[in-house]
Amino acid sequence: MEIALIGNPNTGKTSLFNHLTGSYEYVGNWSGVTVEKKIGIFKNNKDKLIDLPGIYTLNPLSKDEGVVTQFLLTEIVDKMLNILDASQIERNLHLTIQLLEYGKPTIIGLNMMDVASKRGIHVDPVKLSQTLGIPVAPVVARSGKGCTDLAATIIEGDIPNPNPSLVHYGTEIEEAIEKLEELLEGKQNHSVRWLALQLFEGNQYVKQYLYSVIGEERLNFFLQQIEKTINTNYQTSLEQFIFQKRKAKIDWIIADSAIKRNLTKTPLSEKIDAIVTNKILGLPIFFLLMYLMFMLTFDWLGFPLSDYLDGLITGPIASGIESLLSAVGASDFIHALILDGIVAGVGGVLVFVPQIFILFFFISLLEDSGYMARVALVMDRLMEAVGLNGKAFIPMMIGFGCNVPGIMAARTIETPKERLLTILLTPLMSCSARLPIYALFVGAFFVQQKALIVLSIYVLGIAVAFILAKVFSSTILKGETSLFVIELPPYRLPQFRALWRSTWDKGKGFLKKAGTFIFAGSVFIWLLSYAGPSGMDVALDDSYLAVIGGFIAPLFEPIGFNSWQAGASLITGFLAKEAIISTMNIIYFVPDEASLQGLLSNYFTPLSAYSFMIFILLYIPCLATTATIYKETGSKRWTVFSIGYALIIAYILSFVIYQGGKLLGLG
Amino acid sequence: MLGKLKKGEKGRILHISSIDHLVRRRLLDLGITEGSEVCLKCVMPFGGPIMVESCGQCIGIRRKEAIQIEVERL
């Protein structure tokens, strides 16, 4: 059985999903924003729960909202679970009514009763259930209270078909629905009432669907007629008219099942907001939080943990493997492959796991606490100045973790132009895969100012993105209005379990990559370094890797790194940025990280190291990111553009930094 | 005008149809329309967005849109 989970944004949908499903199949739900449907299996191991993006109405404004309508139009749904926020019940019921019109058995999970009663709103689930004619189960999605009962009701309970005519829209519309019914007679299986009302509201997805069933001309004629009738009879638009009818019904439902009292207590959220979205303090607080996040990720927590892990891998683990290999009498080739190739390559990436998890933990913390939406508000003025809007900052922040979910999170941006710009520029946000490279280089060249140097690279990424946003939005992407309306959810104290789960969801992609991609890449790179035109087990400088790297190395001379090693690692960096580290570890094979750092000083100066880091920051989105850009824009032209502009900008900036630095006598 | 309210002041929306239709729809989704009571909570610096509260929820909108929403002071 397929059960769809639908509800407004910030109603606790994802928490409920996690409580109801023991296991789940992971479908690209990287960030706090559910951007794609995610399918979970109920604890009975049989029925499926489908988590859909949060929406206010079935009539979509942005792409992620369209996912739900598209889903209802094309997939088979057996039952629907609609989660309601009791503290925002009026608003939430608009969606509920549309779902009831869809005509499938529906059950309501009534969440946040505690928040509601603090605001003086009391909702009686029994009465609400009677009024709506469908089961209503109170739940506490955060703690999981009531979830077992809810699951039992959905799976085993006999849920009656809802009454799709809960709202009477007046003679004109009711007649028009009947007329559409005649036009569609036997041509499709959806509820005609639902299709008709969505069409009248201006739902483009439904309109396209109906075009394919009865033809464009016929449908447009039909639609114009009803629009005209409503316009002349009521002096209002069809969309507004339907909204008013629903609203009147909702007011009646509320009066029938919920009592509202007004308390004049200042909720905690408002007290916090008075500080963090303060006119003067807002931005400084945001920057301070960012600074703390970086200090913790690097200096205070990350580096010590990485060092410890490095000691473990290069020490006991490597020697353990070595003695094991000697014991089983492995050949020299296998010996070298495992120790110099796999352990060096994969191990070199794994030591950065603590830092990456700490960073993901903080991003999750910002998302779960509700601060992320405030960031969008605080940053909007600045973003507007460069032709974006505050919401574009969220994909960029998520991009610090990984560019792929960052680009996907851009789906919540309503206007196509701002969305495209955000997609094109998010790869400039320094993702966690680039972090090991900085960590290695600052460890070798900038021991005193580690966090500061890394922060400067992150800031540079943002600055370049902003400048380009301005340039692109006033040249190739001119025109179109900007839309910024954002809901600011109340602050919530994040629960450790939820935080850990979301950190793990994000971080395990990194571990998976280390286990598969980096593993294969390491073997491949090692083979290229082991073999050469003159045979196997050659000196490194005679290897195929040196040949390939040497071929492109002269290109990098003007920006400060002309060694073949740098050239070779940049090629592998396109596959995944971490591969740069694996490659370097294999090329400069040395017993531990400290000696690798010592060795690097033979090839780089602090200035050229900085130039190298900047180049890595900007030069190209990794393979997975490029694929995501293609998927999200659906355009080869924009995908090629995103690679092309990045290469050019990277080269120019590294050139300026290196040559400029030399002129200033820093080289 | 909503944009002209001072921090902490309350108003009731009289007229909302002069703003961009996409913005209007999104506000409608959030339950903010003619007749809604709103309270101005925060104002971002440099002509940035404002934060308003309505029925216990907070939303952020830009000032240039806010000044097109007619309200009566309460």
Automatic annotation (TrEMBL), chain A:
GO terms for cellular component: plasma membrane. SUPFAM superfamilies: P-loop containing nucleoside triphosphate hydrolases. Mg(2+) 1 binds at G22. NCBIfam families: feoB (TIGR00437). Probable transporter of a GTP-driven Fe(2+) uptake system. Belongs to the TRAFAC class TrmE-Era-EngA-EngB-Septin-like GTPase superfamily. FeoB GTPase (TC 9.A.8) family. This is Ferrous iron transport protein B. It comes from Cytobacillus dafuensis (Bacillus dafuensis). The lineage of its organism: Bacteria, Bacillati, Bacillota, Bacilli, Bacillales.
